[in-house]
Predict the structure.
Amino acid sequence: MGRYLVRRSFSSLVTLFGVLTLVFFLVRLHPGDVSLLYDDPGMDDAAREAIRRAYGLDQPLASQYVLFLASTLRLEFGSSFSHHRPVAQVIAETIPLTALLAGAGLFVELLAGTGLALLLDRRRAAGRGTIAGTCVLALHSIPSFWLGLVLVAVFAHGLGLLPPSGAGPPGAAAVHLVDRLRHLLLPAATLGLAGAPAIARHLAASLERVSSADFVRTARAKGLSPRAVLLRHALKPALLPVVTIVGLSLPLLVSGALVVEVVFAWPGMGRLAINALHARDYPLVIACTAVAGAAVVAGGLVADLVHAAIDPRVRDAHSSDRVGRP
């Protein structure tokens, strides 16, 4: 298990390094730079060049890349061009809100996905799974931004039950906590419902495979009810593939949170990254990418480790690969 952890951690770091390198060059291929922030008609070329020199943008691209690697290894991303303060401070203000939204969205995704999977399995057992499967597939094809706008139109503007945007007032008081939860419901539901069909389809397929296993047939032969067979015997082994799906859903949660934060004006890291991209704020864009990439890579790593801990065949497969190599 220790060697497996080291190998997966190393490959995760290599993946994160590749993502940051790609973003570094893609951002600099974007037309314009920080001098466009100072849109003063009276500013001459010399003043603009002085601004570029102050931020190190006058150096060759290779030199900028070397400095970028050195600062990344020190976990230092410099100062934000647009906020005029350290990038770490800017991101630290938005990470808790993004983590709150992603965590709530993951909870809704798992809850709704498991419920839909049990419904699909029940319909399949009754020979009426086609319509339910089609509805879940249709839900899977709905874009998250459109789903968010529909929820806003129904629950915010139509029924007036929930606020349409924002994150509520700051503070830890009980009244503020309730208001924060009211602001969180719609974006979390949008983020969770967008990913729930994937969980439902994989879990339903896994339940269908497990239902023909010997231990499930034995449970039925003992006279247990279908509900008891499903919940006590079939559900737990069927959840094994879902562990991997949850880890792989983190990229969708991160990218989905970016869209959802814009739709609901949620002051998180996704909205911050969009504003930084428009402002050509290179350090802030790269730092947001680093945090999001680290979360995605960590999610995949945790999913693999949990999968290996639950299923010894994963560890045995990697051990046999090492033994079989010349």
